[in-house]
Amino acid sequence: MGERSSQMKKISKIMTMTAVCLLCLVFVSGCSLNTHKQDAAATTTTAQKYDVLRIPTPANVRSTIDYWVGEELGFFAEQGIKLDYVGVIPSTQLVASVVAGKIDVGGAHVNRTIAGISAGAKIKAVVGGTETTKDIPHMVFITLANSPLRTPQDLVGKKVGISLNGGCHEYTPYAYLTKQGITDPKSKIQFTVLAETLMEQALRQGDIAVAGFHRDPDQIGEKGEFRVMFSDWDIWESIGGGTPSYFSEKFISEHPDVVRRFVAAMAKTHNWINANPEKAVEITAKRGNVDPKNVKKGY
Fold first, then answer.
1. In which region does residue 62 sit, left (phi positive, over 0), alpha (psi from -120 to 50) or beta (all else)?
2. Are residues 187 and 223 in the same domain?
3. pLDDT at 165 over 70
4. Up-side HSE of residue 247: CA atoms within 13 Å toward CB?
5. Is residue 212 a contact partner of residue 163, using CB atoms and an 8 Å limit?
6. Nearest Cα residue to 262 out of 48, 55, 62
7. Which residue has the higher pLDDT, 241 or 56?
8. Rounded to an integer, what distance in angstroms lies between the CA atom of residue 226 and that of residue 204?
9. Which 8-state DSSP code applies to residue 222?
10. Which one of 4, 43, 50, 121 has the largest count of C-beta atoms within 10 Å of its C-beta?
11. pLDDT category, 32, cuts 50, 70, 90?
12. CA–CA distance from 196 to each of 109, 141, 202, 212 (Å)?
């Protein structure tokens, strides 16, 4: 009888322990499910906090791309902003694309921004982009090292290679001649539109006398092959290379907080680029899948 009672006690203990285990499993399962739900909710909240800004996809990567640098360093994410690259848009169409709402942010040389506003485009520049320095000009116009061209007067009647009509490509040579007292510069030089990749050979062959590049002089040709005749710094100094970012007035009025956060991210990005130009080049080259030697430093 005593033996039977002992067995019953053991069975009872086993059943009690089993019940406790089952309760624990139910509790843990419930906690796990609740945790998954919380994680999912947190993920949803995180996804919802980002404001998406549509911007043009950078093309012909030859200089530091501030958007890419800011993304890689997390500066846009800190401000709750996500950038959506919608494809390449020619610089001549940027203002119209912003006004039409096809993209949210535009950015190109300051003269195109001013021209758009003068033509009635309801846009506002909100943050500065690049700035010209003596060592890092926006544009350089080069000629052969042994070329007889030395003065602005020597340019009269010559062919100048540019990669695009209008904008800084065309206005910089005009301004250079005007600053040196040469009137009616449009009638004094001839422009030949070429891709920058073809200009070096065109110079060597004598098809053009001068070529305009958005590159560092030491990235052009073999060492000692070419020389810089003038740059935008020689004409306008620091303001020549301005490339502001702008929104439509409609977007600014409807999303002022998004614009403020975009400006904050851009400002932090530009300060970092100025302090770390080589690293910014590395980030740009990696994102653009190009040789860092062909990427111009930004300022």
1. alpha
2. yes
3. yes
4. 19
5. yes
6. 55
7. 56
8. 10
9. S
10. 121
11. very low
12. 17, 12, 10, 8
CATH number of residue 99's parent domain = 3.40.190.10
Sign of CA dihedral 85, 88, 91, 93: negative
Exposure letters 59-81 (e unless 16+ CB within 10 A, then b): eebbbbbbbbbbbbbebbeebeb
160 and 201 in a single domain? The answer is yes
CA 225/CA 283 separation, integer angstroms: 30
pLDDT class of 28 with cuts at 50, 70, 90: very low
Name the 3-class secondary structure at 127: strand
Of the chain, the percentage scoring pLDDT greater than 70 comes to: 83
Whose tokens are 């403020």? That residue is 260
Tokens of 280: 């910014």
| Residue 184 lies in domain | 140-237
